[in-house]
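Narrative of activities, Objective 1.

The group set out to show that a structural description can be obtained from nothing but a protein's sequence at a throughput compatible with the screening campaign. Below is one input-output pair from the validation batch, recorded exactly as produced.
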Amino acid sequence: MIEEKLKKSGDFLSLTRQNEWHLDPFKFTLSNGTTVDVLDTGVIQFTPLHYGTKDIVLSSAVHGNETAPIEICDEIIQKVISEEITLAQRVLFIFGNPASINIGKRFVEENLNRLFSGAHSDGDGLINDERKRAKKLEHYVSKFFMAEANKRERIHYDLHTAIRGSKNEKFAVYPFLHGAPWHKEQLSFLKQCGVNTVLMMKAPATTFSYFSSNEFGAHAFTIELGKVKPFGENNMASFASTKSTLIELISNKEISYPEFDMSQFELFEVYRAINRTQDDFSFPFPDDEVNFTGFKKGELLATDGDKEFYADVNGEAIIFPNAHVAIGQRALLTVIPLTNTTDFV
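Output recorded for this entry:
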């Protein structure tokens, strides 16, 4: 039986990769009382017999070639099933796009991380498997967060790696909170993970982390853990603090982090987004230019057909440049140091 095989091996990632778009649900119980619910391919929920006040979603492989977070989550899932880790919180693990894992690419037909908050059904609707997958993932996360009637702390960490390198190897994107304050404890958690660079978004988005933040009030981040590399080529030692902090989070009912200290962080805010609107779109900098590279006022940032974009302020820095996005999508974010440091709780 499939559940017995998984219970013995703990290898949910292989099972997921063998069933790219669908897997019939099944469940079993570990000897420590934890219920294991496989909801679909790449979606596995753990419910301890006695659990604390947090509901935690840990997602990876929303882009299939971002392997380090996949390896981290794969190892943690195996240790939970083998009972090397005893959970103290409800946890939902998600491998977002199994088909793209198998081909070693960011996506198959469409960027999954641009399809949440209903974007999967915009325009022509559910026209490909990634759009259908986004709708399903919204459903699983919604069901997970809404299952408990009592007020609980909701958390969603969507783990990625960036297409290119960064001056700051690890960084996080804090979704737009619509005027609500940023949480110092969450930033302290990130620092414990080895992430001290955070980008505060200033507008709604169709990313997975924004979906959980906006729809359910979850503490949510897109966390970038270095640069895209093939399986087996990641220096997993560089992710040791991230992995140990995640394990502490899910295996303790209460946990505290060092007090928030602004001086230990590099905090940025979005200055503007540049979309690709023409076939002829290019950047003046090389393909290996790293995230957070700053430009002087007046320097060229991008060319979109006949239109040129220049840095408006000294130090305007680039994030997520991708000249090959679909027409109409964001090709570049620029950021500046955060000026408002009062909206924290």
